[in-house]
Amino acid sequence: MAVLTPSPKTAFVDAAGEPLVGGQLYTYIAGTTTLQATYTDSTAATANTNPIILDSRGEANVWLGGAIYKFVLKDADGALIWTVDNISAPTAAVSPVLSGNVTIDSNTSSPALQITQTGTGAALRVQDSADPDVTPFIVDNSGNVGIGTATPSSALEIASPGVFTGAWAYLPTGTAMLFVQTSAPTGWTKSTTHDNKALRVVSGSASSGGTTGFTSVFTSRTITTANMPSHTHTGTTDSTSLTGNLVQQGNRASIQSITGIFSSTGTTGQAAADGGAGSNPTTITLNATHTHTFTTASTGSGTAMDFAVQYVDVIIATKD
If you average pLDDT over every residue of the chain, what do you get? Predict the structure, then answer.
């Protein structure tokens, strides 16, 4: 695509068609009397004086930024020649600057507006009357979107304070949410009711409880014997009665119980005259009392437990 070259220098003439030597060109923000800079070359590094004083041929180097201007031309004595408002100029060789309302009316399957950027500049830049605007809306040549910043470093970067609108803005006042940051975002108030507590997910009514703080429970410590509460271990042994016959030999004798050893359950027997076995042997029960003792190990065989769990701090903030 080729376009007609613009005038390399801006030239003005007087009513007689002669160069407007020493003429004065004032440049303003469109529709105002606020001065707005033009530049001496395409780098926009050096601004022209305002007004611009025309040379001996009535010419000047006038490079415009992306803003819209109002020009006021006066002669060398300051007499007004003309005023022209809403002047704009291309920001690139084949890209015109459009002023006023622009409507794109399309009824195709292709994009209504397609921007292809193969250079290092931004694909799209929307700015206010300041030129260059340091807080524009921009889509750079990598597709990163910046809102309020000219140099987005991520897919979407919003300059502080970054206030959200839309569905986010319609959250009811008092809505509580968690934020992984120290201060509440703009439009929210940090809640200090709860501090140093764990979160519990419930299916019923939301509430709070407990008595011990998070860091008191989950601290850098291990469970040792000294941490164990006082307790006892109990055991039982089987008690069995032993029975047998005690036969008295010789002369008649009474069989008495011996405390803790045996007790008689029969009658006193009669000894035989010949020294043999007597009659009515006595049955005794052995019931000697005794104890069994046992011990348990004072240490376990497992690995000591450290309760210093990893965590991420969050705050609770409510919508203003």
Answer: 78
Q: Give the domain extent around 314.
A: 163-223+304-320
In a domain, 53, yes or no: yes
Residues pairing with 92 in the sheet: 95
Q: Indicate whether 105 belongs to any domain.
A: no
The answer to whether the beta carbons of residues 260 and 289 sit under 8 Å apart is yes
Give this prediction's pTM.
0.35
Tokens of 303: 């690995």
- Among 9, 28, 27, which residue's Cα sits nearest to residue 19? 9
Q: Are 71 and 38 within 8 A, CB to CB?
A: no
pLDDT at 37 over 60: yes
Count Cβ atoms within 10 A of the Cβ of residue 152 and give its class: 0-12 exposed, 13-18 middle, 19 or more buried: buried
